Amino acid sequence: MNRNGSGIAYGVGAYVIWGLLPIYWRWLDRASAFEILAHRAIWSLLFCILFLAYQKQLRTTFALLKNPRTFSLLALTSLLLSANWGIYIWSVSVDRVVEAALGYYITPLVAVTFGVFVLKEKLRKLQIVSVSLATIGVVILTVAYGHVPLIALGLAVSWGSYSLIKKRLNAGALET
Questions:
Q1: Which of 6, 11, 69, 101 is the most buried (most CB within 10 A)?
Q2: Burial tier of 82 (Cβ tally within 10 Å: 0-12, 13-18, 19+)
Q3: Where are the alpha helices (H) located in 29-96, listed in sequence order?
Q4: Tens digit of pLDDT for each residue in 139-175?
């Protein structure tokens, strides 16, 4: 399989796994959302440490943590990512999956908003049309939902903020 084909396969696989996660979280109904989040964080940390060691990048990663600015930004991104995971896991545990899904429709719009207004990125005409259509779709879904989707907004803002800060860090994805 060529590089493009494997990228598509990985992308499809990731979305299938992400789509099945609510079923998995429901199977863990004896554990609290906080306990599931704690396991997810601990096991992710251990896996990343092992992978960084295998890739011989542990020193590079620890060097990043010595810089106070980088350390502070990484701590903030950790909190934002934990909030995002926690909101998502909790929303599934209280049967608010539709609202969580709406959050992942809103998330790209938050990212575009941050890109345009914070990072001063320029949208081309076709991009403006596509963002406008997506916004109209999200507004229709939100109005049909019937109330302010706080879970959706929490997911979108936490992920958008996390992504914005990560973009400003001068480090690879795995190290951060």
A1: 101
A2: middle
A3: 33-54, 58-66, 68-93
A4: 999 999 889 999 999 999 999 999 999 988 877 776 6
b/e code 47-61 from CB counts within 10 Å (16+ = b): eeeeebeeeeeeeeb
Report whether 104 contacts 149 (CB < 8 A).
no
Query: How far does CA 100 lie from the centroid of its chain?
Result: 12
Please list the helix, strand and coil fractions of the chain in percent, rounded to the nearest 5, in that order: 80, 0, 20
Spatial distance between the Cα atoms of 124 and 87, rounded to a whole number of angstroms: 34
- Distance between CA 89 and CA 66 in Å, rounded? 32
What's the rounded Cα separation, in Å, for the pair 70 and 176? 10
Whole-angstrom distance, CA of residue 142 vs CA of residue 145? 5
Report CA 153 to chain centroid distance, whole Å: 13
Instruction: Provide the total of helices (H) and of strands (E) in the chain, helices listed first.
Output: 7, 0
Other CB atoms closer than 10 Å to residue 107's CB: what's the count? Answer: 19
Q: What is the pLDDT of residue 2?
A: 67
* Distance in angstroms (rounded) separating the CA atoms of residues 88 and 151: 8
Q: Are 103 and 154 in contact (CB under 8 A)?
A: yes
Predicted TM-score of the model (pTM): 0.85
Per-domain boundaries in the chain: 1-30, 32-168
Calpha distance 99→151 (Å, rounded): 6
